[in-house]
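Worked problem 6 (solution included).
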Amino acid sequence: MDDYQKKPDPRITAKEAVALSHDPVRGDPPRVSAKASGELAEEMIRLALEHRIPIKYDPDLIQVLSNLDVGQDIPQEVYLVVAEILAFIYWVNQEFFPGQT
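Solution. The predicted structure is:
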């Protein structure tokens, strides 16, 4: 869990950022909801931190996800990794924000 960020890490300079969305009720796979590079990626990360959205630092995963278009479902090859991220986020939400899931 060390690679989930709650505050900016000076060692990490974002060149790319990808946001995922998932609606477990619909049963659809997670999809890319936003992506950015350069300064816009830095702003995307800043906003996520400001809104207490967990951030996962994973250069290999970002390499795969950054090649997808916004609105595109994630490929099956990364389901397990993304499932672990989503499970962690759901756990955090239930643990720290009960009744808001």
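Discussion: The two ends are 21 Å apart (CA to CA).
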